[in-house]
Specification:
heterodimer, A: about 290 residues, mainly alpha, two-stranded antiparallel ribbon, 11 helices, 2 strands, about 70% helix, globular, B: about 350 residues, two-stranded antiparallel sheet, about 5% strand
């Protein structure tokens, strides 16, 4: 029982990082119609900002987290303005490859800007744990889960109930129609990139204490976020989030109870089989095209 | 001396694409000329005109070109995408390693590896009937990740890498990568396979199959209405692409004679796609150009000139080429020609005016 609970808590934490990244990818997919392969790299870049501030000036983790979220917001806006918007007329596949170019630029810039040594980032709340049903649970884990769920809840509320949320939904449905209706689609895509970058950075800040701030820290998160999006379906915002938690739990569960080596392979194969029968994910709907 | 070697490579490069831009040129002749030019590179290190490491970069470019040709059949002709290419290159390289260590002859191992890869390709093809767009792309990423997971964690692939050692072709020609003469022969073999791959692709896309693939990429429903069997051509597209990718892996195993297990990540697959996008959809010479731009130029020149910044520059190069040449870099020749023509007509106009006065 305590094993199950421990796996559940762990999965909630890793699941929230996947969910944050996946939500960013879904937001960009819906508003800009491109697959953002650079989601992880953007998060990593800004985690480096936090790392360097912490190690040179000794600021508290809360302050550096805040600063790195601001720089993430700016990175998102810069990327949208200078790279994504000029490429509006490029074919969809080429647009995806632009984000690959972006990865190379970011990964190449990191050692130049921040040096080759990895940085350490502490967790938000120092290691104190409570016991819950036999499994020990760190306060930091609770905090991380709470803040991710809170943030995602806010985002869902925002998208469903505000004017800007409506603008995002309309842009996602059809950008050209939205533009004709007077929706400022440029601002919408810009804000989407900015918030996606912030969510990626938050995921990076959550992952960092477990290893370190290094160029490959979000590789697993990035790939898992794609998988989460497909499992849940990209047509809703809730789908990728649900997918993220399912994947995190399934991977931890199989790794613990079946095999450390084959766990991932089993989960991925199972999702592939699932996808064969439900090609648009758990919550996805088929988009009916007129010929 | 080193400067000189760089000049020879740079002088050799523009001449070959130049032949492609000649109007009305025969495509087969262009492919032949390109590969003949690349074949000459095998001799240059022995004449002291080029470093052996430079030849290895061209070998790498050749391997990438072969893989990217398969990707072009998917992306350019069929409108499908695969993010699992790296897994299949790995399957080629590591599969060869495993079979060769079991004592099988080179040709049989290659055949077995290709058959296995074709089987996987067929599976993806079947899968693609159900799943589409971003879902299909990520489904292929699943397959790439599953393969990567298997390479890194199954003991048969031997941890960090499989060292293959000298390969024996046709049972009697033993070639070892360490010997310089042998390395040139291996390089020539890669170019030969690249040449055959280009010819095969040319024939494939000029045939009924190529037209069917293009029809399918434009509109599946219309293609179906014209009597094109979607299942058959999806299978053809994916099997061809995986076989090309796996051939690239086999060439890798043959040339470098060691196969790493951890290298086959998503980034390699993305690089291959970038080669097609940057070089030019549906263009065979363009695919080669893409490989040169994405892999060759950064490793031949940028690394020496810029050092650590080279990675940033290749990223910028990808972004800029896509922004300014969305149809592919292969069309740069046409643009230059148009520029010249405009200038000539402008000059003619000026001359005319001058005469009128």
């Amino acid at each position: 029982m305590d094993n199950i609970l421990r796996i559940l808590f762990n999965s909630m934490q890793t699941g929230s990082t996947y969910a944050l990244a996946a939500l960013g990818i879904a937001l960009i997919w819906k508003t800009s119609r491109t697959t953002n392969f650079a989601q992880g790299s953007i998060g990593t870049l800004n985690a480096y900002v936090a790392g360097i501030l912490l190690s040179t000036w000794g600021w508290s983790i809360w302050l550096v987290a805040l600063v790195s979220l601001v720089t993430a917001f700016l990175t998102g806006i810069l990327i949208d303005t200078f790279i994504i918007r000029p490429a509006a007329k490029v074919s969809p596949i080429s647009k995806q490859i632009i984000t690959l170019g972006l990865i190379m630029v970011i990964v190449g810039l990191i050692p130049l800007l921040f040096g080759v040594d990895p940085y350490r980032l502490p967790s938000f709340i120092p290691s104190v744990s409570v016991s819950l049903g036999g499994a020990s649970l760190r306060y930091n884990t609770i905090f991380v889960i709470a803040i991710s769920l809170g943030l995602m809840g806010f985002l869902f509320w925002f998208i469903q109930n505000t004017r800007w949320g409506l603008a995002i939904r309309v842009t996602a449905a059809s950008e050209s129609t939205a533009k004709l209706m007077g929706v400022p689609t440029r601002t919408v895509t810009m804000i989407s990139w900015a918030s996606a970058a912030m969510m990626g950075t938050l995921a990076a800040l959550i992952v960092a204490p477990q290893s370190s701030v290094n160029p490959n820290m979000l590789l697993d998160v990035q790939v898992s976020a794609f998988f989460a999006g497909v499992l849940g379906g990209f047509s809703t915002f809730a789908g990728p989030v649900a997918g993220a938690f399912i994947i995190a739990f399934a991977r931890n569960f199989t790794a613990f109870y079946i095999s450390d080596v084959w766990g991932n392979v089993i989960v991925y194969s199972a999702i592939l089989v699932f996808l064969y029968f439900k090609p648009y994910g758990l919550f996805g709907k088929k988009i009916i095209k007129k010929v | 001396m080193e400067h000189k070697t760089d000049q020879t490579t740079s002088a050799a490069l523009p001449e070959k694409p130049g032949s492609r831009f000649r109007l009305g040129g025969n495509p087969v002749l262009q492919i032949l000329l390109l590969n003949a030019g690349l074949m000459i590179i095998a001799l240059l290190p022995h004449l002291g005109l080029m470093r052996f490491s430079t030849m290895s970069i061209f070998a790498y470019t050749g391997i990438y070109t072969v893989v990217a040709l398969g990707m072009n059949i998917l992306l350019g002709f069929s409108g499908l995408i695969s993010l699992g290419t790296a897994g299949f290159i790995g399957a080629g390289a590591l599969g060869m390693g495993v079979f060769l260590r079991m004592g099988l002859p080179f040709e049989l191992s290659a055949l077995l590896v290709l058959l296995i890869a074709a089987g996987l390709g067929a599976l993806i093809g079947l899968f693609s009937l159900k799943v589409e767009s971003i879902y299909l792309a990520i489904a292929t990423l699943f397959i790439g990740e599953i393969l990567r997971q298997i390479y890194t964690s199954v003991p048969i692939f031997g941890g960090e890498f499989i060292s293959i050692g000298a390969v024996k072709l046709f049972g009697f020609i033993e070639l070892n990568q360490i010997l310089q003469v042998h390395r040139s022969i291996l390089y020539a073999l890669i170019i030969l396979v690249q040449f055959l791959g280009m010819l095969l692709m040319y024939n494939l896309v000029k045939s009924r199959t190529g037209r069917a693939l293009m029809a399918m990429s434009r509109s599946e429903h219309a293609a179906q209405a014209m009597g094109i069997n979607i299942l058959k051509y999806r299978l053809i597209a994916f099997i061809t692409a995986t076989v090309y990718a796996t051939s690239g892996g086999i060439l890798y195993a043959m040339f470098f004679q060691n196969a790493p297990t951890r290298a086959w990540t998503l980034n390699i697959s993305l690089l291959i796609i970038a080669m097609v996008v940057v070089g030019g959809f549906k263009s065979i010479i363009g695919t080669f150009l893409g490989a040169i731009i994405i892999y060759g130029i950064p490793n031949l020149f940028l690394k020496d000139l810029l050092g650590d910044i080279s990675y940033v520059f290749s990223g910028l190069l990808i972004i800029l080429v896509i922004l300014f040449y969305p149809r592919g870099f292969v069309f740069v020749g046409e643009d230059i020609k148009r520029l010249f023509r405009r200038r000539r007509t402008a000059a003619a106009d000026a001359g005319h005016k001058g005469g009128g006065k």
